[in-house]
Design goal:
The chain is an alpha+beta fold. The chain has two domains: 106 residues; 125 residues, Alpha-Beta Plaits, CATH 3.30.70. The strands form three sheets. Strands 1, 2, 3, 4, 5 and 6 form a six-stranded antiparallel β-sheet that branches. A four-stranded antiparallel β-sheet has the order 8-9-7-10. Helix 5 runs antiparallel to helix 6.
């Protein structure tokens, strides 16, 4: 038997809005709860009804949270709120908005006309062939042990592995510099995220003014065409600014903290 929870209001994001709005049955938790606004003056929280409980950081829950914000973003500048922020009721939402009204207005102004663009660059397997071709010491050592029995080459193979690792790190930093130098000047703010795996060159988020988005797209295309033989680019546009806005709401005290670039 499932535990019973009181009903509250799950907060997805904050927007500028005076009039009540609805964004469809996109609420977290699989109940198809409607997304709607609760306003104070000219700002509003986008919420859905939800049990007051702790949602796990599952793929399903995270996607539901993000998809809801993406839907709202189609027509509004959004300030994303931290995952699993749940207020007791409408009155508490209004209290939060009233208490942080001026701060919210400032953050919305700072983010207006900007969007997050994401880029991941990953080496193709050919990079290992390039490293051997470009580093004579590695190539010479590989040729030397090629004619020897495996039992006699263990130390040399370890040495080659270390040399390749150093060369790969050097190549990564080289191409990372080229990519970031090419794209950063077109962004208002940049965040470099953690790399996953030895083949990733860079994973970065860019806060870009809408007026510069076309130029940014073109620059990504140019880099992709120039390094098509070495690097695979994964470019994702028009994302909620998760990397540049972090609103944390204490639903007990109605305090809102956070910054926007």
């Amino acid at each position: 038997m499932e535990a019973e929870f009181k009903e509250g209001r799950y907060i997805y994001c904050i927007i500028a809005s005076k009039q009540p709005q609805s964004f469809g049955p996109l609420g977290i938790g699989g109940r198809s709860d409607d997304l709607y606004t609760i306003s104070f003056k000219d700002v509003a929280a986008v919420v859905s009804n939800s049990p007051i409980k702790s949602y796990s950081l599952s793929h399903e829950n995270l996607i539901a949270h993000e998809k809801a914000i993406e839907e709202v973003m189609k027509g509004h500048t959004v300030l994303p709120v931290r995952f699993c922020t749940i207020a007791a009721d409408d009155a508490k939402i209004k209290e939060i908005l009233e208490k942080a009204h001026d701060k919210i207005r400032g953050l919305l102004k700072a983010m207006s006309g900007k969007k997050e663009l994401g880029l991941k660059a990953v080496f193709k397997d050919v990079i290992y062939q390039d490293i051997v071709a470009e580093h004579g010491d590695i190539r010479t050592l590989k040729e030397k042990i090629a004619v020897l029995p495996p039992a006699q080459t263990l130390t040399a193979r370890r040495q080659i592995g270390q040399m390749v690792e150093v060369a790969l790190n050097q190549a990564r930093e080289h191409y990372k510099g080229i990519i970031m130098d090419g794209l950063s000047p077109l962004a208002t703010e940049v965040k470099i995220n953690r790399n996953y795996g030895e083949m990733m060159v860079v994973s970065a988020a860019f806060l870009v003014d809408e007026k510069k988005e076309t130029s940014f797209d073109q620059r990504v295309d140019q880099l992709g065409a120039k390094y098509v033989d070495k690097i695979k680019f994964k470019y994702v546009g028009t994302l909620p600014p998760f990397n540049f806005v972090n609103l944390v709401i204490n639903t007990q005290t109605a305090d809102l903290t956070g910054t926007a670039s």
